[in-house]
Sequence to fold (226 residues):
Amino acid sequence: MLLIDKIAYESKLRDVSPVAKSICYLLLLVYMFALPPIFQMIGIIVIGIATIYTAQISVRRYLKWLLVPLPFLLVSFITIILTISNSKSELIFSAHLFGRYIGANEASLMMGYKLFFRSFGCLACTYFYSMSVPFNQILLVLRKCHLPSYLIEITMLMYRFIFILLDEMLLIHQSQNIRFGYQTLRTSYQSLGLLFRVLFVQSMARYKQMMIALEMKFFNGDFPLD
Fold:
């Protein structure tokens, strides 16, 4: 079981209706999209405190998880604020390159500023939801939304195979570490290539084992979700 799933099953909100939590999640997303950055900052702080309290995790761990997607947000922020212009006067700061000026103006900075806090706020909302709603409750919410059963089954199978892949990857990586497979850059590349190759073979073997187990239980193509 992934750590985030363990936290969700032990959350103080685990017994709250999953539909109510899903509606609350959607309302929080609307809040992050609709209001200006100052209110988004307040929302991020409040949601963070609520997540730490209900999920019973440390502040350090929560901040560490928040920082994981930060490089992607920064890349998006830089991409948005940079603009190309023929006139230096239009830009707050700029660099001359190939006969043009690359920099940022007031409009691009404001757009990047708003997008950064909006994305960060939505991320905080998603963490709050994922740490308070176990996966089986998510499936029930999808069913109550009257989504096609095959779509729900695909979601469940994908979730299951995430565990299969992670389990196999950790076992292979641990065995390679014991054999000093990541001591140098060359051996690291070799071990990584071997890991992907063995991971594919082992995953297919685990898939066949799962299908055999389902057939032994008279699986007819439908997964009971009640």
